[in-house]
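Sequence only, no structure available. Ideas?
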Amino acid sequence: MTAGMTRDRLRAQDLTHPFVGARALDTPADVHGLAAALAPLQTEDQFFSHLTSAELHGMRMPEGRRTLQLHVTGQDVSRAMRRPGVVGHKTTVPVRVVELGD
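Reply:
I predicted one. Tokens follow.
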């Protein structure tokens, strides 16, 4: 049992699979839902960036620029995150990560 869920529960048909290794009660319909589903799979040196960060911060997006692809940047990583639906980036430049409240 991991995080209070049995293997059978994790395989239940009422759960969706937004990402490999992630389960959700509902299919995420927007960038906030997708980010919430992906966040537990990120390492401590990965953070949302680019258009994803702008949307999560509530910035107005130009028409046609909204996307359900998530941008994730890793700091000092050997390889950018690679998953369907994720655009991975990596940087060696020092960054300041801002955490958003729940």
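DSSP finds three helices and three strands in the chain.
Hope that gets you unstuck.
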